[in-house]
Amino acid sequence: MSITLPAPLPIVVGLAFNRAGPDFGERDRAVLNLVRPHLAQSWRRTREYERLQALLSAAGGVLAQQGAGVIVLADPVHELTPGALMSLYRFFGRPAPRDPLPVRVRHWLVVQQTHLTGSAAGLDLARPLRASVDGRQLVLRHLPGLPGQEDTILLDERPLVAPAGTLQALGLTDREVVVVRLLGTGASNGDIAQRLSLSPWTVKRHLANIYAKLGVRSRTGAAALVLEIDAHHRH
Prior knowledge:
Order of helices and strands: EEHEEHHEEEHHHH
Helix content: 40-55%
CATH class of the largest domain: Alpha Beta
Number of helices: 7
Largest sheet: 5 strands, antiparallel
Structural class: alpha+beta
Shape: elongated
CATH topology of the largest domain: Beta-Lactamase
Low-confidence stretches: 119-125
Number of strands: 7
Oligomer: single chain
């Protein structure tokens, strides 16, 4: 007796059942007919799983070539792109016992996740974590998962285009550095526009670019990050 499962042409999926004893009776046929839709569903899910695995593998390879990576904060933590955890260890050090994440990364992650619960008002949720080693920089960004899904850490590794600790190393142009310096003095948009002979609209555009590159969402966040970078650079 055989069962054919629904499949796209030219694929034919069938299951054949044989036994040495008496032929299949009506009861046997009824049982097999009940099993048939479950077998078909299992086959479709297997095919879909294989397709998604192939897509993830291809995407992971592309991300790795671009110096990017993804770490899924499941239990256990695992890397979606090859070498993501090794990159993490190279920039932030080996993890603590019984924790796959380095201490500094774990602390940063706790701060980000605490902010999501609303118990750490005032923290900058969008602020990434950065580290530099041997002329290269690794930037981590926390991506909260949807309900029922795991959080992820996005890794972006790239060469430093300026000495570590400078604003240019974070991707700011010379003009944006001047703007953010004035911002740190407490200057308003109007003050900055007047000092640099710019229109208010141009100042707003510069600030939007600065916020995006520094990973902050406010004037206060940008000014605080500049102070931190300056303090680190002096030491």
